[in-house]
Specification:
single chain, 489 residues, alpha/beta, Rossmann fold, UDP-N-acetylmuramoyl-L-alanine:D-glutamate ligase, 2 domains, 7-stranded parallel β-sheet, 16 helices, 15% strand, elongated, binds ligand NAX, binds adenosine-5'-diphosphate, binds potassium ion, Bifunctional NAD(P)H-hydrate repair enzyme, ADP-dependent NAD(P)H-hydrate dehydratase activity, multifunctional enzyme, YjeF_N_dom, Nnr
């Protein structure tokens, strides 16, 4: 799994790579620019639109010059806008790439840019080398870039965004950020979404093993990581191997939640799915999901089940005793979502009773209720880290790039998912998926890594067809396709 390093570690990673592969820093810059232009080619941007490349004096600007050269070669009309006083201030590699700009490329000062022009703007002003508060000239440059009404594409990071911290000043508002080697931590914070836009990761040839000597507790989960975490089933596997799971949830007016969770558990491969629901409401579940069974008795022997998920649509009124009783009589890891989390927020004395290694899946609102409001995502990550360590629990901070926070302190940002998943019930689908994997004897870590990724991928597949018309049921229907897509039998 790809490690997310700090901005300060990037230079060291680069130097180690240059030494290992015996290449120059100039060649590495060229790889970044080639990676960018290959992505550009795949997007088929119209050649009728001129390209404006804003270049700073550092290596981010160097990437910009090289990109300008490559796009010009591809027959785009390219102008470079200098965001520096004179050539002597350029970094060595930026200087080399500046010298390679061909005659057909117009070179102007950033002040000369007319932001009302039609075209595409490439922001290669500041990269991960940006430190401290913006200097006053830089403020002006960023304002100029942001006054442009067309598409802005940031190189590595939107200029002005610190790579590992929360934005404090002004920053370019990009609609796409093409980042190199690994996504910089701050690109993944929800409060930066308007500045970062869509993230595109460009490989510059640094292999995962080269990150080994760098310490980081942050990771980035991609499709290639998944298969190693799945369990294999063989020809003689029986119903029991696929697990017997229980979902506790649903209440008057909110039965849909447990309908969605149970369906998604079945679509994820559970052998047997039972639901503990109010007896008056059972017909809704049994009609909607005939494959699921209802358990109506007051005192279920929870030990019958390989995994239990609790919370979707449960309601909080009068349910504290149910949760307490569950913690007393079940010792395997649970999945706790929605109202189970709200109950914990209201009854914090129950937290020490949660079976070790359980999984909590709060969205930002539930997270705040449980652990208090946070001023920014960094604080939220720190709170999650302390909570998971203290209680030996795992937690998913849900949203775009959901963060899997493991009990051992690792925090894994998910790469799959789409904005079309921001629809009622998609969290209930995740509860079903996670409970299903736990029931199939996946460890909580395996269940989390596979579950969160497949959920996001199912959302992407559904969103490709249904766009903003995507509903939670579409995500469930797409779960089987995720196994095909990832070649999991
Ligand atoms: N492995 C990688 O990640 C690679 C990174 N490359 C590029 O190199 C960049 C990093 O290059 P550098 O270390 O030269 O740094 P940058 O180009 O990001 O920044 C240095 C420049 O920013 C200015 N600056 C810094 N703080 C400022 C402030 N507070 N106000 C105004 N200006 C400020 C400096 O004067 C200098 O001109 C990356 O972002 C990426 O674009 C690629 O060229 C090659 C591979
Ligand atoms: N913009 C987004 N990008 C990616 N995933 C998203 C986005 N918005 C929501 N999701 C995912 O959808 C799910 C929503 O969960 P939740 O808020 O609990 O929904 P509900 O309570 O309606 O079931 C989470 O897994 C979250 O990661
Ligand atoms: K930039």
């Amino acid at each position: 799994m790809l490690k997310i390093l700090s901005g300060n570690q990037v230079k060291k990673l680069d130097s180690a790579h240059l030494e290992l592969k015996v290449i120059s820093s100039f060649e590495l810059m060229e790889r970044a620019a080639v990676g960018f232009s290959n992505w550009w080619k795949s997007k088929l941007f119209s050649k009728n639109l001129p390209v404006f490349v804003f270049c700073g004096a550092g290596n981010n600007g160097g990437d910009g010059f090289a990109i300008a050269r490559l796009l010009h070669k591809m027959d785009y009309t390219v102008s470079v806008f200098k965001c520096f006083e004179d050539r002597t201030s350029l970094s060595e590699d930026a200087g080399k790439n500046y010298a390679l700009l061909s005659e057909g490329i117009e070179i102007k000062s950033w002040q000369e840019f007319d932001p009302t022009r039609k075209g595409i703007l490439i922001d290669a002003f500041l990269g991960v080398g940006f430190k401290g508060a913006l200097r006053s000239d830089a403020e002006g440059i960023i304002e100029k870039i942001n006054s442009f009404t067309g598409k802005i594409i940031a190189v590595d990071i939107p200029s002005g965004l610190p790579s590992d911290d929360v934005l404090k000043g002004n920053c370019v508002r990009a609609s796409i950020t093409v980042t190199f080697a690994f996504p910089k931590l701050s690109l993944l914070f929800p409060e930066h979404a308007r500045n970062v836009g869509e993230i595109v990761l460009v490989d510059i040839g640094i292999s995962d093993g080269e990150y080994d000597s760098f310490s980081s507790s942050f990771f980035y989960l991609r499709d290639r990581d998944i298969s190693g975490f799945h369990r294999e089933f063989h020809r003689f596997s029986h119903k029991g191997d696929f697990g017997k799971v229980l979902l506790i949830g649903g209440s008057k007016g909110k039965m849909g939640a447990v309908v969605l969770s149970s369906k998604s558990a079945l679509r994820t491969g559970s052998g047997l799915v039972s639901c503990k629901v109010d007896s008056e409401e059972r017909l809704i579940l049994q009609t909607a999901v005939p494959e699921a069974m209802c358990r109506l008795e007051e005192k279920i022997d929870y030990r019958e089940f390989d995994a239990i998920g609790v919370g979707p649509g449960l309601g909080t009124e009068g349910k504290t005793a149910l949760l307490e009783d569950l913690f007393e009589r079940y010792s395997k890891p649970l999945v706790l979502d929605a109202d189970a989390i709200n109950l914990l927020a209201l009854n914090q004395h129950l937290i020490p009773m949660i079976p070790k290694n359980s999984i909590l899946t709060p969205h930002l609102g539930e997270f705040d209720r449980l652990l208090g409001t946070s001023v920014n995502h960094l604080e939220r990550l720190e709170k999650a880290f302390l909570f998971c360590k203290k209680w030996g629990l795992n937690l998913v901070i849900k949203g775009a790039n959901s963060v899997i926070c493991l009990a051992d302190g690792r925090q894994i940002f998910n790469s799959s998912g789409t904005k079309y998943m921001a629809t009622g019930g998609s969290g209930d689908v995740l509860t079903g998926i996670l409970t299903s994997f736990l029931g199939q004897s996946y460890s909580p870590e395996q269940a989390l890594i596979c579950g969160v990724f497949h959920h996001g991928l199912a959302g992407e597949l559904a969103g490709k067809i249904k766009r903003r018309g995507t509903i939670a049921s579409d995500i469930i229907e797409a779960i089987p396709d995720t196994f095909i897509q990832l070649d999991i039998s």
